[in-house]
């Protein structure tokens, strides 16, 4: 396999890292008594969650357990029936300008990359800084090239998304989210749509980000990543949070039968 | 052959076709503008906007064009006294353009909506997740991709518009092809077959390039995913 040459490089610059480390202990993301139904299906049951600044939270669980839905409620791509979600102390606004502003503070990486198909790689990264942050075009492009270099796809800057491999597209998607200088990054199964040999190049970028102090919520099936990068693991099943703990606690001493069953199924082969 | 020659000598057939092309040209522009506004309303987050646009489309899509054209003359002009010009020909021409545009806009809206359905939901989600507002995601991300995906249905709408422009006769546009054809049939019943062939093939010749062009464009502009 190709050596990942950017592993030694940093993704965030010094000031971003300092900003990420300062006032640790403040809760950046809070969910209180969040409930959601799809018709008769109770997808989120009394979800309570607090994520500190700089913390890396990995959410695992069987398919259909509500982990993606929970991730998507945090920037209101899914609405909730009741409960409170706060980002950096502010309750999540309804539609409108305030919501758009808040979404700009929350980076999101999707399972299916969702790069803008009508824009080049560079334009994908510069679009939101220019249109939402009203950044000057040349500065946005300089920052974008910097970010693309750090995730190792700067040589592809003028190509269209469809010309890149899945792994490259997902790394661009991460750079695109980082270009907005988000307070927190949400990853919704970022490696689930990738060919196996491309999973690591994306995970390496995520591990690097985690070590640099970015606050992250990751929904994933990659247990290796969870062990390596997570500060805390959340185990969800049937719309509920069943366990929360450090990677060691969760992988070595799962408390509930549901978690033991889940782990035995994925770790035995 | 003599029949064709004498017809072309005594009637200005190309001038009549030119009137239909002019009707089509202006109606295409105005219906495109109105159609884009309608489709943006149809996908907007505001439900009253969606309902108004949906109501418009259902109303005009299901109404016979002839009725709209006759209404433009008898209702809008004769009753409501709305007039574009003191010159009768110019006035009826623009009344016909308005009627054709109102009618065709409904089909432009439907063509664009089929194009929007080819844009994966994830594109809009990514745009929203980055903090772009509705108008920004619509104009920068969704519509550019939807337009490329709706080239073929838009081409069909344009073809239908060109053929529908003959209904302008119902709005008293006396210079366009179907009016000229009626006139020719009235005065030259001896060459009726030739008269039909002139107009039938005239339209075929005009329309084939549109079909070829839209097929070419829809392949060339297709969004690669």
Question: What are the salient characteristics of this protein?
Answer:
heterodimer, A: about 270 residues, alpha/beta, Rossmann fold, four-stranded antiparallel β-sheet, 10 helices, about 25% strand, disordered N terminus, B: about 220 residues, mainly alpha, MetI-like fold
What does this structure look like?
The complex is a heterodimer of chains A (269) and B (225). Chain A is of the alpha/beta class and 269 residues long. Chain A has one domain (27-267): P-loop containing nucleotide triphosphate hydrolases (Rossmann fold). Chain A is built from 10 helices and 10 strands. By secondary structure, chain B is mainly alpha-helical. Chain B has a single domain, classed as MetI-like (MetI-like fold). Helix content of chain B is 79%, strand content 0%. Chain B has helices at residues 2-10, 13-42, 47-61, 65-79, 88-116, 121-129, 134-149, 151-164, 177-187, 192-220. Chains A and B meet through helix 3 and helix 4 of A and helix 6 and helix 7 of B. Chain B: GO terms for molecular function: transmembrane transporter activity. Chain B: It holds the Pfam family BPD_transp_1.
List the helices and strands and how they pair.
The complex is a heterodimer of chains A (269) and B (225).
Chain A (H helix, E strand, L loop, with lengths): L13 H8 L5 E12 L2 E12 L3 E5 L6 H7 L8 E6 L2 E2 L5 H9 E4 L11 H11 L5 H14 L15 H13 L5 E5 L7 H16 L3 E5 L3 H7 L2 E6 L2 E6 L1 H6 L4 H11 L2
Parallel strand pairs in A: 3-8, 3-9, 6-7, 7-8
Antiparallel strand pairs in A: 1-2, 1-4, 4-5, 9-10
Chain B lengths: L1 H9 L2 H30 L4 H15 L3 H15 L8 H29 L4 H9 L4 H16 L1 H14 L12 H11 L4 H29 L5
């Amino acid at each position: 396999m190709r050596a990942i040459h950017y592993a030694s490089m940093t993704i965030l610059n010094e000031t971003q890292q300092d900003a990420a480390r300062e006032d640790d202990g403040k809760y950046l993301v809070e969910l209180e008594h969040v409930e959601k139904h799809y018709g008769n299906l109770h997808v989120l049951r009394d979800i309570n969650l607090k994520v500190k600044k700089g913390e890396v939270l990995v959410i695992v669980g069987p398919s259909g357990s509500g982990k993606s839905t929970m991730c998507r409620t945090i920037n209101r791509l899914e609405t909730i029936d009741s409960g409170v979600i706060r980002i950096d102390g502010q309750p999540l606004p309804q539609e409108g300008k305030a919501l758009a502003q808040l979404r700009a503070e929350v980076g999101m990486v999707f399972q299916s990359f969702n790069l803008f198909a009508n824009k080049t790689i560079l334009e994908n990264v510069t679009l939101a800084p220019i249109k939402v942050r009203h950044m000057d075009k040349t500065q946005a492009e300089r920052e974008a090239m910097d970010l693309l270099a750090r995730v190792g796809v700067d040589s592809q800057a003028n190509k269209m998304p469809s010309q890149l491999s899945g792994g490259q597209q997902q790394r661009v998607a991460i750079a695109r989210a980082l270009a907005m200088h988000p307070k927190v990054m949400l990853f919704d199964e970022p490696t689930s749509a990738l060919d196996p040999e491309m999973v690591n190049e994306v995970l390496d970028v995520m591990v690097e980000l985690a070590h640099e102090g970015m606050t992250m919520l990751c929904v994933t099936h990659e247990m290796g990543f969870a062990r390596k990068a997570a500060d805390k693991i959340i185990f969800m099943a049937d719309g509920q949070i069943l366990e929360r703990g450090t990677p060691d606690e969760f992988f070595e001493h799962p408390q509930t039968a549901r978690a033991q069953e889940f782990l035995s199924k994925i770790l035995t082969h | 052959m003599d029949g064709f020659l004498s017809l072309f000598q005594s009637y200005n057939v190309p001038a009549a076709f030119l009137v239909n092309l002019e009707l089509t040209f202006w109606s295409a522009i105005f219906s495109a503008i109105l159609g884009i506004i309608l489709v943006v309303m149809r996908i907007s987050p505001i439900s009253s906007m969606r309902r108004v646009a949906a109501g418009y489309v259902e109303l005009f899509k299901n109404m016979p064009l002839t009725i709209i054209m006759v209404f433009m003359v008898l209702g809008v002009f004769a009753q409501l006294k709305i007039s574009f010009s003191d010159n009768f020909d110019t006035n009826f021409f623009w009344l016909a353009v308005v009627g054709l545009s109102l009618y065709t806009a409904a089909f432009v809206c439907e063509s664009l909506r089929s194009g929007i359905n080819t844009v994966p939901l994830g594109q809009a989600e990514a745009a929203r997740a980055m903090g772009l507002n509705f108008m920004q995601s619509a104009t920068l991300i969704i519509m550019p991709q939807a337009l490329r995906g709706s080239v073929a249905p838009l081409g069909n709408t344009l073809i239908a518009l060109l053929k529908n422009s003959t209904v302008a006769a119902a709005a008293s546009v006396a210079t366009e092809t179907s009016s000229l054809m009626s006139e020719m049939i009235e005065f030259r019943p001896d060459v009726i077959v030739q008269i039909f062939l002139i107009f039938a093939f005239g339209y075929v010749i005009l329309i084939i390039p549109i079909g070829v062009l839209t097929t070419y464009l829809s392949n060339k502009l297709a969004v690669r995913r």
